[in-house]
Amino acid sequence: MKLYRNLPAKGTPVVPPLSAQPAGIAQPMAIRLAVGFTSLVLLTLTVFVISRFALTNDYASGLSLIEETLSDKMFWSAVAVGFLAQAIDGALGMAYGITSTTFLLSAGATPAMASASVHIAEIFTTGVSGVSHAKLGNVNKKLFLRLLVPGMIGAVLGAVLVTQIDATVMKPFISAYLLIMGIYILSKAWRTIKSNQGEPRHVGKLALFGGFVDSAGGGGWGPVVTTSLVGSGNDPRTTIGSVNFAEFFLALAGAASFTLLAGTGVWVLVLGLVIGGLFAAPFAAMVTKRLNTRTLLILVGVLISAVSFFNLYKALLV
User: Fold this and answer.
1) C-alpha dihedral over 205, 207, 208, 214, to 10 degrees?
2) Which residue, 157, 139, 120, 159, is CA-closest to 251?
3) Is the residue at 300 inside a domain?
4) What's the CA gap between 51 and 45, in Å, rounded?
5) How far apart are CA 242 and CA 66, in angstroms?
C-alpha cells in the first residue's frame, strides 16, 4: 500500500511541473506590461519620425534631403552593414551589434557614432524580436526581470564612457574587444553544453557587464549574456527569448544616453542600418534553414575576428 500512498485521489488532474508544461498564450502581468510598453514605444517612435520629417520639410526640401542621403557614401555603407548584420543575427540569434560596429568602424565611423547608430537602430529590431518571443511564450519572467535593471544601468555607464573619451584613444581598445568577442564566438562552435536544472547564478552581474560592454563596444550583449547562460546549461529557448526581450530596454536606455551625450548626428547611419536589416530578413531565414549552428558560429567568429584584427592593425599604425 505504501507504493500508492502519494498518488493523487481518483479524478484529480495530474499537473506537470512548470518546466515541463508547454508555453501557453497567457503571460504573467510583468511580461504583458513589458509587451504593451514596447509596442507603444515602437508605434510612438515610428509616428514621431514620419511626422517630424513631414512637418519640417516641404516637398522640395524633402526631396533634396532624400537625394542628399542617397548620394552619401556612409549611408550605403550602413545599408550593407545592416543587411549583413541582420542576416547574421537572424540566423544565429546574436552578433547584430558586434557585426554592425565592426564594419562601421571599418567604414570610418568613430566608436561613439557606431555604437549610437547601432543602439538607435536596435530599438526597432529588438522591439519586434522581443514582442515576438513574448507572444510565443519564450520569455521567462524571473530571468527577464533579473536581467532588466542591471543591463540598463550597464548600458548607460558604457555610453558615458565611450562618449567622454577621445575616439582615437578608444578605437584600438574597441577593436581589441571585438577581436576577443569574435574568438569567443568561434570557440562556442566546439563546446558541448551540459544541462543545468538549477536557477542561473550571477545574472545581475552578468547583465551589468553585458550592458556595459554592449554600449562601450557597440555590441556584446548576446555573446556575453546569452552564450554564458546557455553555455552553463540553462534552457536555450527561454534564455534566448528573455535576453532578446531585455535587449530592447537595454537599447532604449543606451540610445537615450547617446542622444543626450553625443547628439543626433547619426541618423544617416541609423536609416541605413534599418533599411539594410529589413531586406536581410528573408535571407536570414533561408540561411537558418540551410546552415547548422556550428557552421554559423564558425563563419561569424572568423568574420568578426578578421575584420577586428584589421581595424586594430590600422588603429595602432595611426
Assistant:
1) 140
2) 120
3) yes
4) 10
5) 38
Q: What is the pLDDT of residues 96-112, one digit of tens each?
A: 888 888 888 887 778 88
* CA-based torsion, 215, 151, 213, 138: positive or negative: negative
The position carrying cell 545599408 is 79
Helix (H, G, I), strand (E, B) or coil at 139: coil
* Burial class for 118, CB neighbours closer than 10 Å (0-12, 13-18, 19+): buried
Is residue 19 included in any domain, yes or no?
no
Helix axes 293-317, 96-106, angle to 10 degrees: 30
Confidence class for position 284, pLDDT limits 50, 70, 90: low
- Residue type, position 283, single letter: F
In a domain, 49, yes or no: no
Nearest partner of 208 among 200, 190, 220, 198, judged by Cα: 220
- Indicate the number of domains in the chain: 1
Nine-digit cell at 120?
Answer: 538607435
Determine the structural domain holding residue 261 and report its residue range.
Answer: 72-317
Give a yes or no: residue 39 inside a domain: no
The answer to whether the pTM exceeds 0.85 is no
For residue 190, CA distances in Å to 185, 218, 222, 294, 297 come to 10, 26, 18, 8, 9
Evaluate whether 125 touches 96 at the Cβ level (below 8 Å). Answer: yes
Mean pLDDT estimate for the chain: 76
Q: How many CA atoms lie within 13 A of 281 on its CB side?
A: 8
303-315 residue pLDDT tens: 778 877 877 887 7
